[in-house]
User: Which sequence fits this backbone?
C-alpha cells in the first residue's frame, strides 16, 4: 500500500515541476524576442519611449536598458539558481509596462508599443493590457512557488522521461522555439549592426559612407511610385495624393499622431516651411485618431493640410513604422527621398528641401 501511494505523489510532483518549467520557458521565449527585437530597432524604440512620455533626453539611456533587462530576465529564467529572481524581474517589468500603457490610455493616447521592435508593433490598447495580464499569470506562478521550487532544471526534470510524455514533449517544443528565436534574432541583430560598423569604419577613414542595401530598412526606395490615397481632411472634404500633386511642387508628407510625444519637437519646424514666402514643398500632415483629438493637439500649429487615416493604413503603405515620420514625394508622383523616422532624421530631411529640389525621372506606368 505504501508503494502504490508513492507513485501518485511522485507523479503529482512531476506535474507541478512540469508546469513551473513550462512557465519559465514560455516567459523566457517572450522576453528574449522582446529584448533582442528592441535592441535591433533602437531608433524606433526611442521614438516609442518618447511617445509614452519618457523625456527625450533620457531615451538614449532607457532604450538600451530595457531590452538588456529583458535579456537578463531570460537568462535568469533558464537557470536553476536564479529562476526565482528572474520571475521577480518578469513581474516587475510587466507591471511597469502595464502601468505605462494604462496611464496613456486613460489620457486618450495610443502610442505604438514597439513591444517587440520591428518584429511586431501596434498601437497600445486595452488588448495590450490584457496580454500583459495574461503574461503575469505564469510569472506570478513561478514567483509564488518560491526559490526552492524553481531549482528544477530541464535535464533533471526530464531524466527518465521520454518524448512520448505530453509534458516532456511540450517542454521540448518550447525549448526548441527559444533556440530558434535566439538564432533568428541574433542573426538579424548581427546583420544590422554589421552594416553600421562598416559605415562607421568608412567615416573614420574619411571615405564616403558606402551605399549598402538594407533589406530590413523601412520606407519605400526613391524612384518608385508613391501609393495613392484619399483621406478626409481635418477641416472638411477629401484630400487625395492627386490633389497634392496638382499644386505642382514636391510634397513633404508627414506622419504624426495626437499621442506622439516627440512630434512636438519637429512639427514647429515643419510648420515654418508653410510660413515661408515661397514654400519649397507642399506640406501635408497625415495623422490618425479622432478629429477631436487631432484638433486639440494639432490646431495650435496651424497646418493648412491635416488629413486623417483610420489607423496606420497609409503609413503602412509607405512603409513608415511609427511617428514622427516623413518622406518627400516628387511632383511626378514618385518617392524622392528615403523615409525619415524620428526627430533627428526628419530635421536632416528638412535640410534637403531647397526650392531647386531635383526631380527624379518620370515613373513609367
Assistant:
Amino acid at each position: 500500500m505504501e508503494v502504490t501511494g508513492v507513485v501518485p505523489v511522485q507523479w503529482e510532483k512531476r506535474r507541478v515541476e512540469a508546469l513551473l518549467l513550462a512557465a519559465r520557458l514560455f516567459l523566457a521565449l517572450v522576453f528574449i524576442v522582446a529584448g533582442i527585437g528592441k535592441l535591433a530597432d533602437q531608433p524606433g524604440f526611442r521614438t516609442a519611449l518618447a511617445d509614452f512620455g519618457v523625456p527625450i533626453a533620457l531615451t538614449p539611456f532607457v532604450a538600451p536598458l530595457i531590452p538588456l533587462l529583458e535579456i537578463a530576465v531570460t537568462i535568469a529564467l533558464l537557470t536553476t539558481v536564479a529562476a526565482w529572481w528572474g520571475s521577480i524581474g518578469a513581474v516587475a517589468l510587466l507591471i511597469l509596462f502595464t502601468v505605462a500603457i494604462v496611464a496613456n490610455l486613460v489620457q486618450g493616447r495610443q502610442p505604438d508599443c514597439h513591444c517587440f521592435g520591428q518584429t511586431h508593433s501596434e498601437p497600445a490598447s486595452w488588448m495590450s493590457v490584457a496580454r500583459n495580464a495574461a503574461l503575469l499569470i505564469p510569472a506570478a506562478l513561478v514567483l509564488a512557488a518560491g526559490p526552492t521550487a524553481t531549482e528544477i532544471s530541464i535535464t533533471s526534470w526530464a531524466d527518465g522521461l521520454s518524448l512520448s510524455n505530453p509534458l516532456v514533449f511540450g517542454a521540448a517544443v518550447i525549448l526548441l522555439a527559444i533556440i530558434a528565436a535566439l538564432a533568428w534574432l541574433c542573426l538579424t541583430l548581427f546583420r544590422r549592426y554589421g552594416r553600421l560598423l562598416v559605415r562607421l569604419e568608412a567615416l573614420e577613414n574619411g571615405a564616403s559612407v558606402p551605399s549598402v542595401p538594407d533589406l530590413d530598412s523601412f520606407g519605400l526606395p526613391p524612384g518608385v511610385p508613391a501609393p495613392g490615397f484619399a483621406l478626409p481632411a481635418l477641416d472638411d472634404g477629401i484630400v487625395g495624393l492627386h490633389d497634392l500633386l496638382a499644386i505642382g511642387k514636391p510634397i513633404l508628407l508627414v506622419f504624426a499622431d495626437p499621442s506622439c510625444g516627440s512630434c512636438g519637437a519637429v512639427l514647429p519646424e515643419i510648420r515654418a516651411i508653410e510660413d515661408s514666402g515661397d514654400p519649397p514643398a507642399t506640406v501635408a500632415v497625415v495623422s490618425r485618431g479622432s478629429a477631436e483629438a487631432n484638433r486639440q493637439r494639432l490646431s495650435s500649429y496651424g497646418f493648412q493640410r491635416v488629413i486623417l487615416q483610420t489607423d496606420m493604413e497609409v503609413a503602412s503603405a509607405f512603409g513608415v513604422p511609427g511617428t514622427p515620420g516623413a518622406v518627400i514625394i516628387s511632383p511626378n508622383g514618385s518617392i524622392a527621398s528615403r523615409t525619415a523616422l524620428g526627430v533627428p532624421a526628419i530635421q536632416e530631411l528638412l535640410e534637403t528641401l531647397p526650392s531647386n529640389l531635383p526631380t527624379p525621372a518620370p515613373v513609367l506606368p
Summary: Confidence is low (pLDDT under 50) at residues 1-7, 157-163, 193-216, 355-365. Strands lie at 230-232, 238-240, 251-255, 282-288, 306-309, 325-329, 340-341. The chain has two domains: 2-193, 230-350.
